[in-house]
Amino acid sequence: MAFAVTSSPAAISGSSFSRSSASSDLRIPQIGSFRLADRHATVNLSQKRCAVKPVNAEPKRNDSMLSHAATTSAPEVSEKVEVEDFDQLAKELNNASPLEIMDKALEKFGNDIAIAFSGAEDVALIEYAKLTGRPFRVFSLDTGRLNPETYRFFDEVEKHYGIRIEYMFPDAVEVQALVRSKGLFSFYEDGHQECCRVRKVRPLRRALKGLRAWITGQRKDQSPGTRSEVPVVQVDPVFEGLDGGYGSLLKWNPVANVDGKDIWNFLRAMNVPVNSLHAQGFVSIGCEPCTRPVLPGQHEREGRWWWEDAKAKECGLHKGNLKEDGAAQVNGNGATTESDIFNSQSLVTLSRTGIENLAKLESRKESWIVVLYAPWCPFCQAMEASYVELAEKLAGSGVKVAKFRADGEQKEYSKNELQLGSFPTILFFPKHSAKPIKYASEKRDVDSLMAFVNALR
Fold it and tell me: CA distances (Å), 33 to each of 7, 14, 66, in order?
């Protein structure tokens, strides 16, 4: 004999959960309220509803009350666990509309699923959820460094949909330690991962521990290097859900197969609120220091962490998108099969020993300008022509132009000894100074590079 949970008529008071306006009559299941089910019924655990928990709940659910009640009334309860094949479900829903996918997600997980809202075009997810007519929850990560326009947008969305967004905040002690040890803008020098880990990834981890599934706005066209194979539903490869362990959390991506322009056509058609930053050229919106507008024709992710390798533009929330076979290209560990770049007779190719000797010299016969590069980096590839032209212009001028491949086994040395923060890094070694000078501008055309050299030689 199995037991089924019934709904208590009691309403929730003081709840911080986000729900659609259609959820006013929702009745929340209460642990300990049971009715006898059919003697031969089996229980599908994927369909069971847990007691209401906040999105940031850390502990696993305590089912001791349920177990005690069951054993008291029917000592020989056996449950048959039906495991759903979500790979197969992803195939079945691959050609489904975002509305159909959203409806299926909310139907399956009810109060155990929530929409992750970033303050950008993720508002489309909220609109789809509203259109299903089902209750839904929304949460967002407040990193403490969002644009003022994004905060105003959050407030507008809450009022428009009659919901309360469940905000997650970073640990104050961790933020304080990071800022005191490295300053407010360390990510410009050593990459965004550490800051994102403190301000976004760990708060998200706490949020997801209170859920069995979450809904994201990932699209395949957002980042071809990391999101081109995002399915509409998947077992989350990085985070854990309420029950803990791999497979305890499902990730739903209802708009995975939708083009960005179609998302915007939908938003305009439904006349929903949008972040005012979009009108200022911002497409992909994150934290204020790490987000900027993009120019016409530029890819939307070029406005995020623009100083870093384009193939690794994930903050950690969707780290599972980074492919293992591309790890060497992403993090510089191991060899790559990319063809070399900056090939010119006017350029000197420095070995590890060569650049170590150059860095040790306190008085040089000639000045040197050296690019620290990785051949797979698109930003290095983009500046190849201008850097080769610079070498040709400076030939015989008393300034040597060189290159040093700084990925793979040389990356740690380059970071520790040569000021490498991202690719490419350009250093000028003056004739009478031991310490190299780092080129700080993102303008890598030949005229800008020449002006840099002329100002220092």
Answer: 8, 22, 9
Q: For each of the domains in the chain, give its residue range(s) and CATH number, in order of start.
A: 86-321 (3.40.50.620), 348-455 (3.40.30.10)
Q: How confident is the model at residue 368 (pLDDT cuts 50, 70, 90)?
A: very high
Residue 299 makes CB contacts below 8 A (sequence gap 6+) with: 224
Active site annotation includes 377: yes
Verify whether residue 50 is a known catalytic residue: no
Residue 285 in tokens: 């919106």
Phi, psi of 167 (to 5 degrees): -85, 140
**For the segment 286-324, what is each residue's pLDDT rounded down to a tens digit?**
888 888 887 676 666 677 776 675 554 444 454 445 444
Mean pLDDT in residue range 208-236: 83
Catalytic site residue from 195, 287, 290, 380: 380
Q: What is the bridge-based pairing of β-strands 166-168 and 138-141?
A: parallel
Q: Is 109 exposed, middle or buried (0-12, 13-18, 19+ CB in 10 A)?
A: buried
CA distances from 308 to 300, 304, 333, 373 (A): 15, 9, 16, 12
Q: What is the pTM of this model?
A: 0.53
The one catalytic residue in 196, 287, 290, 377 is 377
What single letter denotes the amino acid at residue 137?
Answer: R
